[in-house]
TrEMBL record, chains A, B:
Species per Swiss-Prot/TrEMBL record: Persicitalea jodogahamensis
Domain Nudix hydrolase: 10-170
PROSITE patterns recorded: NUDIX
Matching CDD domains: NUDIX_NadM_like
InterPro entries named among the record's database cross-references: NUDIX_hydrolase-like_dom_sf, NUDIX_hydrolase_dom, WH-like_DNA-bd_sf, WH_DNA-bd_sf, WHD_NrtR
Official protein name in the record: DNA mismatch repair protein MutT
DNA sequence: ATTTATTGTCTAAATAGTAGACAATAAATA
DNA sequence: TATTTATTGTCTACTATTTAGACAATAAAT
């Protein structure tokens, strides 16, 4: 499972990632499903190497799952309840998968290490969903984008982690001008508005939304976009402060 | 130093506390000075027991230092750079204090434990400075309130931690209505304004500040305060949502 | 009685946010 | 080709909020 042994990591400390994407007017989260009987879903997670900055650890974990190096990333909260252990979950999983676990089973030492109580640092990431090729790891059966309004049941407190990530995203969206990380290079005003609506789960007035966004002076207007629809063609825009 | 042995704690994970107080129109931070030659200051800190919620660990650490149980408290950021070890600091301290360390010296095992790289969770606290009786621990020479604009040199990245705490405090102040935690039970409008000015390090217009605060509808107006000054006496106010 | 410094509040001006309206346009329809 | 339809871009009026200026009320000193 790891290229490093468990001694190489800081014990009892993990990173959980909420990877946001946007597709078909829906805000989505990238969630792997574990390759065991019992339907277990868990946020992409990992540990911190002894000589690794926590932000870089988060980047490493995110790159493995998305293939993207230069990813927008924000640390938002630490989850440190006393009940945060993988033990109940792993034991239930083992009881449901007796015959199958051999190849993937952890040895006793690893099992002890990974089933202790963990404190987890929550990071959320914003990606252009079209640039991501989701990567399973050895433990996964699959990895997919789920609408945030229709997430699968996840282990431990992972629903709470997503909830808190979304809350922080909403607070930061206007302040830090980060919505554009969820869109392709160019987009129409309507697409940007629909993205806002999916994040805040409420409608915005079209005229005033456009005014507000244009007054930020962070968009470059490009040529018109051919839609083929029976109406006026919208302009395309590009975010100016794009690092790239 | 501890009533628990080092195995009772989560290794390599600590809590650093920025305890804010307010006195004589200055925002202050409670900082202990270590009882060793060399003038070492360090934020109040501690570790997390294996069966202890991180928020409760922070409360425990704060109660030890302030004597206050019901303290306002907010987790604001994790500090996880690779350079975060006490080793350089402890070794320098040891070289400066050869004769003196015996009684307080950690044994070898404890020394190894405490000098590894640490990831630290930052909490800030807001207290009524008049209710606090600062408590030294075994390692401290003194513990005092320092104006945030005139902090002593602190070890490691503790200045950065204070900086980030202040930044978060500013962002949260209006949103969460927490300034009142820094004042006594009753206060005048001018006192509240001067508190805001010390936190944001900028002046506020008196008329508009008063209007804004009163429009929040969270203050109860009490009797007038006798000042003895040659002018109109100000009203006293009390914060309504006070949990007490 | 007058002066002084500060407090509480009012009003006007400037700014920002909200709601309604309409011309411009690209393609479908008649 | 003229008309209809759906959507886009923008304008203006209206409302709410923020900022700036003004002044009466007051407690004690002069």
């Amino acid at each position: 499972m790891y290229s490093h042994s468990e001694q190489d990591y800081i014990p009892q400390l993990s990173i959980d990632c909420v990877i946001f994407g946007y597709q078909e007017t829906q805000l989505k989260v990238l969630v792997p499903k574990l390759d065991f009987r019992g339907d277990f879903w868990a946020l992409p997670a990992g540990f911190i190497l002894q000589d690794e900055d926590i932000d870089l650890a988060a980047r490493r974990i995110l790159e493995v799952r998305t293939g993207i190096k230069d990813i927008y990333l924000d640390q938002f909260r630490v989850f440190g309840g006393t009940g945060r252990s993988n033990r109940p979950f792993l034991e239930r999983m083992m009881s449901l998968n007796e015959g199958k676990l051999g190849s993937k089973m952890l040895n006793r030492k690893e099992f002890e290490w990974v089933t202790r109580r963990f404190v987890s640092i929550g990071y959320y990431a914003l990606v252009d969903i079209n640039k991501v090729v989701p990567q399973k790891n050895d433990m996964d059966e699959s990895i997919d984008w789920y609408p945030i309004k229709d997430l699968p049941p996840m282990i431990m407190d992972h629903h709470e982690i997503v909830e808190k990530a979304l809350e922080t995203l909403r607070l930061n969206l206007d302040q830090k001008l980060i919505a554009f990380n969820l869109l392709p290079e160019t987009f129409t005003m309507r697409e940007l508005q629909e993205l806002y609506e999916s994040i805040f789960d409420k409608p915005f007035a079209r005229n005033n939304f456009q005014k507000k966004i244009l007054n930020l002076n962070v968009l470059e207007r490009l040529e018109k976009k051919f839609t083929g629809a029976a109406n006026k063609a919208p302009y395309l825009y590009r975010f100016l402060n794009a690092k790239g």
